[in-house]
Amino acid sequence: MPRFQIMPAEVRFYDWFEKSAANLVEAARVLRHLVDALGNRDEVARRVRQLNEAEHRGDFIVHEIFDLLHGTFITPLDRDQIQRIATSLDDVMDRMEAAGDVFLLYKIDHATPEAIRLAEITLACAEQINLAMPLLREKSKLPIVREHMIEVNRLENEADAILRNALAALVERPDQIFDLIRWKEAYGLLEEATDRAEDVADVLNGIVLENS
To answer: Among candidates 102, 203, 112, 114, which has minimal Cα distance to 158?
Structure first.
């Protein structure tokens, strides 16, 4: 149902959403470089520190959004939608940071084609979200938001298939149990990042449908 209001809605939510999405892209690029650097422990450690910093920035943004929500009477979106955008973006960040930690802690010393592609997909999802987020400000641009989110859905499906194939290949080498353990966790976290990106897409798609 369209909203009719006298007081203007608080538009700073959009500012924070855009900052969060931009931070997500930066972190996803770091993760992509981290995968390329596997085998160079010092470089991997440096990239993990960058992921930690990005995650801290993301936490700060979430806190600012929730503080703003607490003090705002007129919101531009439903309160539940605002909360879900903030938390789902943060969830993507958390999975990326966790993946970086696994690469470092398990001393994974080489990149596989599957890890490279999953990192690429994670970055592509973040880029699509980042492109869509500013479009929320204008109702006329909401259909373009949906186009970006359809692409996120497609990318997540590709990540699912890559994970299945990667795990199937791992279990064919039962003598390499340590590789099975560490790669299963690394692949899983990379794929989970795309799952959480799809959660963002679901929220934004809901906003588009409600306002179309």
So the answer is: 114
Q: Is residue 78 part of a domain?
A: yes
Q: Does 2 reside within a domain?
A: no
- Mean pLDDT in consecutive groups of 10 residues from the start of the chain, 212 residues: 53 96 98 97 98 98 97 93 98 98 96 97 98 95 96 98 96 85 97 98 95 80
Measured at the alpha carbon of residue 142, what is the angle toward residues 56 and 140, in degrees to the nearest 5? 130
The label of the residue with tokens 């970055």 reads 123
Task: Please name which of 205, 106, 111 lies closest in space to residue 149, comparing C-alpha atoms.
Answer: 205
Domain span at residue 189? 12-210
pTM passes above 0.85: yes
Residue 2's pLDDT is 47
- Provide the number of structural domains found in the chain: 1
Alpha carbon 74 to its chain centroid, in Å, reads: 28
* CATH code of 79's domain: 1.20.58.220
Classify residue 8 by its DSSP letter.
P
Q: Has residue 176 been placed in a domain?
A: yes
